[in-house]
Amino acid sequence: MKDSLSPILIVEDRLTDLDLTKRAFARQRISNPILEARDGEEALAYIDKWEGGEHRPVFILLDLGLPKISGLEVLRKYKSHPISSAIPVIVVTTSTEDQDIAEAYKLGCNSFIVKPVEFNKFMEVASQIEIYWGALNTGPR
Amino acid sequence: MAHDLKAPLRGIDGYSRLLLEDHLASLNDEGRAFLKTIQSSSGEMSQLIDDLLEYSRLERREFKSDQVELGPLITTIVDQKKREATDTGIDFIVNVNGGSIVADPNGLTQSLRNYLDNAVKFTRKVSHPRIEVGSKELTEKFLVWVRDNGVGFDMKYHDRIFDIFQRLNPSEQYPGTGIGLAIVRKAMERMGGKAWAQSKPGQGATFYLEIPKQSRQFDL
């Protein structure tokens, strides 16, 4: 990881998925601090924190089916706000609906990944995400 | 937005795997066997959800009337299946004369894939597995078939195998959800075509698609 201080934000309402994602990262020896948001409101509350000077995440994992405010709406707000528009947002969802995929890309998501059921595959996905978005990719400074 | 039907399965698979990997010493052989059954059952459920979603998507999806070149389409699908089935030793033969039709390419592709999956599955236990894909142009339609030398079936079950959830073999022998052929029949009916098969037990099976040259949407 280029900047070990940069956190990773996981926006996920299901506790088991959140826990398994964190465990998958830990098993891949990804030691960045993990920020969490359990619904759309909590996800959007980070915008104020980043404006207040808190470390912005190296990337965001965003589920689409969120309580209160939908994942697509969160994505729209992240991508239209100057403080968060350059942060890579990786939609991680079970939806394979063409409409969701098209809408997510239209709103500016950087990648769309379908959540695998098997934990081993889930770990592979976690590893690939970190390698690409955490190490290989160079974002704006 | 689709329902997250698989979410509980991620928990079941994830935590049973963690239990197996991180707490192996606390489990006896029976405990490990139970966990493996939990994982394989979760895998089956996952496949069932995928197939059911595919089945229901067929009804909702907009039917497309595109010009389709049969030869290249069939060759591409068979090549893909060949790559997936390299460890099976199956001899794939394509004997297609080509031809152009107006049809729903997604429905056609899905149907051929499901026929091929079926043929791969039921040739698993024969010594020289062979799958032949052929086509023939008729007056107003094309006939496409997938012929295998697998276990075959008794024709008295012919109609049942195209019904959803119907299976002729125990799932531990030939795993499957019983949805694949139902998807084929539904896709064909939607484009005004037909799906049927001919077989004898132990003598392989031939599965046919009959596709009108000018397909249009038939609401079911």
| Principal-axis shape of chain A | globular
CATH superfamily of chain A, by name, is: Response regulator
Taking the sheet with the most strands of chain A, its summary is: 5 strands, parallel
Q: Widest sheet of chain B: strand order?
A: 2-4-5-7-6
Domain module tally of chain B = 2
In angstroms, what is the radius of gyration of chain A?
Answer: 14 Å
**What are the secondary-structure elements of chain A, in order, as H or E?**
EHEHEHEHEH
Number of structurally distinct domains of chain A: 1
Low-confidence stretches of chain A: none
| Basic shape of chain B | globular
| Spatial gap, N to C terminus of chain B | 24 Å
Q: What's the helix count of chain B?
A: 6
Full CATH superfamily name of the largest domain in chain B: Histidine kinase-like ATPase, C-terminal domain
Residue ranges of chain B: pLDDT <50 for 5 or more in a row? none
Overall pLDDT confidence of chain A: 89
By CATH reckoning, the class of chain A would read Alpha Beta
Quaternary state of the chains: heterodimer
**Count of helical segments of chain A?**
5
Overall pLDDT score of chain B: 88
Q: What would you note in describing this structure?
A:
The complex is a heterodimer of chains A (141) and B (220). Chain A has five helices and five strands, in the order βαβαβαβαβα. Helix content of chain A is 44%, strand content 15%. In chain A, helix 1 (15-27) packs across helix 5. A five-stranded parallel sheet of chain A has the order 2-1-3-4-5, with helices on both faces. With 141 residues, chain A is an alpha/beta fold. Chain B is α+β, with helices and mostly antiparallel strands and 220 residues long. Chain B has six helices and seven strands, in the order H-H-E-H-E-E-H-E-E-H-H-E-E. The chains are: A alpha/beta (141), B alpha+beta (220). At the A-B interface, helix 1 and helix 5 of A face helix 1 and helix 2 of B.
